[in-house]
Every structure is written in structure tokens, then in C-alpha cells.
């Protein structure tokens, strides 16, 4: 029996780019291009679709951050710039000492906004907590919880610069359980408060999905 091909699905994303420099670079990139790591963009679109479908609190801010990061990555790749700073790019490791590290990274990437315990990760990895910590230190140079907080901090910085979401909402969005802890953690890492960081870096912070003229970039 002849198999029927799965129907083609298309995702149309319309948006406005508030940063004039980024907009000009996107125009320079053009309408069609080849991506070196297409799987990365597929995973990001999966997260955008999931947030849109679930519509949990502040999902729009999360989607805005995801889309903006995708656009910046496209510009960096196409214009010959590195996709991410070395200290922020996690090594791409599938398995290590029999542990499915890729599955752990995917779990963290999709759930950093929620409470993630060491017990959760060790259960997922199928090893005890001591072994899990050892693996993380060998692969990523830090403990699992510190690694998660590093991701939360990076996401918080993106939201501070690229959205008008309040600091307390951002703290909740990225998984910090207390605005006070978030503020202390942020200042310890960045030597400034979240609001100070926003004022220094947020020249144009609002971002949405409706581009002028109603056409999609792609």
C-alpha cells in the first residue's frame, strides 16, 4: 500500500522590530537563506507553539523573548558573527558516562521557569544526585542548580532589555520564587539591579508580532 505523505504545515509569524539596527540587518539577510543548525530553530518554534497553546501567565513575554533571540541568531549567523558568547553556549553533548545529557538539557530548557529540583534531574538521568553533580561539573563546569540559574539569568536579561514586563513578573517568568532573591542574585552576578540593567541596555524594549504592512519576513 502506498503511504500518504504527511500534510505540509506552515507557521506564519508577523512581528515588528523596534530596534532600527536589527531591522536593517534583517533586511540585509534577505528572504531565503540556509541555516547551519536548523534543528535549533525547530526546537525554538516548538517552544513558541507550546507557549501559545498553553497560554500560561505572561506567555506573550516569553514568546517575544524566544522570537527575538531567533532573529538575532539569524542575523549573527548570516552576517558572519558568532551565534552566542562562549560563556553562554553550553557544550553540545549527547551522552556522557551513560547519561542522556541531551535529554537533561531539553528538560531544563523547557522547564527552567518552573521549580526544578536536583531530585527531578537525578530521576530523569537515572543516577544518584552525587553522580549527577559530578557529570555536570565535568561537562559544564558547574552544578546543575547553578547551571539552571545561569539560564534563568540570561533569560531575565533578555526580557529586561526587549520587553516592558515588570521586574517582579520577569522574576516569576524565569523561575525565581522571590523577587527579593532574584534582585539579590541579579546584582551579585551583574553588579547592578535589574532596573539599572534595563536602563543601561534597553534602548528600545517593546516587541510584538505584527509587522507593518502585515507581511511576514520569511
TrEMBL record:
<keyword id="KW-0804">Transcription</keyword>
<dbReference type="InterPro" id="IPR018060">
    <property type="entry name" value="HTH_AraC"/>
</dbReference>
<dbReference type="GO" id="GO:0003700">
    <property type="term" value="F:DNA-binding transcription factor activity"/>
</dbReference>
<keyword id="KW-0238">DNA-binding</keyword>
<dbReference type="InterPro" id="IPR020449">
    <property type="entry name" value="Tscrpt_reg_AraC-type_HTH"/>
</dbReference>
<feature type="domain" description="HTH araC/xylS-type">
    <location>
        <begin position="102"/>
        <end position="200"/>
    </location>
</feature>
<dbReference type="GO" id="GO:0043565">
    <property type="term" value="F:sequence-specific DNA binding"/>
</dbReference>
<dbReference type="InterPro" id="IPR009057">
    <property type="entry name" value="Homeodomain-like_sf"/>
</dbReference>
<keyword id="KW-0805">Transcription regulation</keyword>
<protein>
    <recommendedName>
        <fullName>HTH araC/xylS-type domain-containing protein</fullName>
    </recommendedName>
</protein>
<dbReference type="Pfam" id="PF12833">
    <property type="entry name" value="HTH_18"/>
</dbReference>
<dbReference type="InterPro" id="IPR018062">
    <property type="entry name" value="HTH_AraC-typ_CS"/>
</dbReference>
Amino acid at each position: 500500500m502506498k503511504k500518504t505523505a504527511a500534510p505540509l504545515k506552515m507557521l506564519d509569524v508577523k512581528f515588528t522590530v523596534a530596534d532600527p539596527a536589527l531591522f536593517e540587518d534583517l533586511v540585509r539577510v534577505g528572504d531565503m537563506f540556509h541555516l547551519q543548525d536548523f534543528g535549533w530553530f525547530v526546537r525554538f518554534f516548538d517552544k513558541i507553539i507550546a507557549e501559545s497553546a498553553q497560554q500560561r501567565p505572561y506567555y506573550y513575554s516569553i514568546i517575544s523573548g524566544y522570537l527575538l533571540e531567533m532573529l538575532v541568531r539569524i542575523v549573527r549567523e548570516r552576517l558572519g558573527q558568532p551565534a552566542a558568547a562562549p560563556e553562554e553556549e553550553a557544550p553540545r553533548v549527547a551522552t556522557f558516562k551513560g547519561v542522556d545529557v541531551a535529554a537533561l538539557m531539553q528538560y531544563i530548557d523547557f522547564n527552567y521557569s518552573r521549580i526544578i529540583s536536583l531530585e527531578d534531574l537525578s530521576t530523569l538521568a537515572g543516577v544518584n544526585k552525587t553522580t549527577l553533580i559530578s557529570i555536570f561539573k565535568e561537562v559544564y563546569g558547574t552544578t546543575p542548580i547553578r547551571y539552571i540559574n545561569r539560564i534563568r539569568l540570561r533569560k531575565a536579561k533578555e526580557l529586561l532589555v526587549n520587553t516592558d514586563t515588570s521586574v517582579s513578573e520577569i522574576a516569576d517568568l524565569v523561575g525565581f520564587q522571590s523577587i527579593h532573591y532574584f534582585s539579590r542574585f541579579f546584582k551579585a552576578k551583574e553588579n547592578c539591579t535589574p532596573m539599572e540593567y534595563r536602563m543601561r541596555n534597553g534602548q528600545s524594549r517593546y516587541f510584538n508580532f505584527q509587522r507593518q504592512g502585515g507581511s511576514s519576513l520569511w
